[in-house]
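Schema walk-through. Below, the input block comes first and the output block second. Nothing else is stored per chain. Lengths vary across the set, and this one has 616 residues.
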Amino acid sequence: MTIRLLPPDLVNRIAAGEVVERPASAVKELVENALDAGATRIEVMLREGGRSLILVEDDGAGMTPGELELAVERHATSKLPDDDLVHIATLGFRGEALPSIGAVSRLTLASRKRGADSAWSLALEAGAKGRPQPAALAQGTRVEVRDLFFATPARLKFLKAPRTELGHAEEVVKRLAMAHPEVAFTLRDETRVLFRYPAPGGDLVGGPEAARLARLGAIMGRDFQENALALAAEREGIRLTGHVGLPTLNRATADQQFLFVNGRPVRDRLLQGAVRGAYQDFLARDRHPLVALFLDLPPEAVDVNVHPAKAEVRFRDSGLVRGLIVGAIRHALAEAGHRAATTVAGAALGAFRPETGWGGEPALAGAGRPSGFFQGNYGNWCGGTVPHRLAEAAVQAFAPLEGFDRPSARADAASETTSPDAQRYPLGVARGQLHETYIVAQTADGIVIVDQHAAHERLVYERMKQALAETGVARQGLLIPEVVELEESAVARLVKRAPELAELGLVLEGFGPGAVVVREVPAMLGPTDVKGLVQDLADELAALGEALSLKERLEHVCGTMACHGSVRAGRRLTQPEMDALLRQMEATPHSGQCNHGRPTYVELKLADIERLFGRR
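--- output ---
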């Protein structure tokens, strides 16, 4: 075949395939152009998910008629004042995206330069450029993209349903809005306004940081805003800011993790891996935290041109970036102490609210409950007639309590209710144990319900980590070494990791091809199921593989050991034991959640309890 030069319109259509994959890609390029132009207000309107119309209007610097003509030429841009491709501080390349979009659509540009007397417009259809014409427009730029991909039918038929394409475009605008809280964003379709994020007022208390958190709350939800920890760290010219959610606020997917580099939304494996590493002490592998991280670093320290759509970046020193993220997140989580997410208490209160009262009477206005609550073994008590025996039980229950009228009994009850300890301790004083699993404590302004196993598991885990970092975990020899039979592959894994396990206080060695013998265990675990512990460790090591560092593997193994060495559900605790557990929780970092991200306690305020009973 004969080699030939491709015509410019075909070159532009090929380039469009790299830059514009779907309507959301065009929206991203156009909104980034508006941000680079210094806009403080950006409005986006889509019709049929962007297939028939994409309209982006801003109040940025605007363009002259001559600049309009250059803007739709390939390799013409205002983003590179010189030939330096390293120190790039802008988001998009106006002269690269616009001709690519114009090659596969009917594009109209209208713009008015700041300080100019009039506006001008220019049309581009399938790459064919018209002449600038006078237009009516306030300061800024308006871009209309009609009939996207009409010039490339093959690409058009691969577009998804309008609702799906609209969702992708909405995600793009939201990410850019998160990165630029100082800019007002509006997104609408042909029927309604999907969202409107106003710019912060000049009198906002807290300044830029408060504006960013408010914008994050508008996009990620009120739960995140109420349970977010602020980050601020800097190392060797790299600055990290943002907010991360408490571990007890987590999701089944990682779609609520937002990462930005120099104001640019990215999906970077290094950054996502750093977030996982920072939370590995707090969440199970199938749970994901909510984070919004903003990295600012010198342009020469990051390459933003490794991906056509600039969705990925490459760092000059990836180890430095990862260490900064992991260290900053862990420091913020440590500062949170035993705090748990407010969503835990909210879910508990929701479970307490029945839809109907006893005997079918309507419940309090606004009260709701989860589907299926008060079903199963509870029968039909919530919504049916009151059982006949209940009347007899009520008579007995409300009879005068024998001996309660004695002055000494009244004094004892009063002193117990107004115990000063409940005022002094954040987690209060233990008042009882439910089902030999949950500790109920009274605080100054409410109650706390503690999962004794989950709480003690976190305490043991933190003690093991501290001992490992300082002097090593103390061992306790078994009077009779225990032989544990396993599969040969499991034995091989344990024997290979025997030196690491010995650092954690577990001494074992091979005992033939299908067993190991355990000679010493960590002293802090106390009496434990050695066989179950070893089997779980073998499974844990198989899941971890060689991907993690030694320190990370040791921490995972610590978590497994802590689970086996913790107070079990079903064990009756004395009053001093319950109070001791509460005091240790108050003094231990991260005690608000167990090693798997589940809450260790639920706090209910007295005001919320009073609302449940209609007292407020």
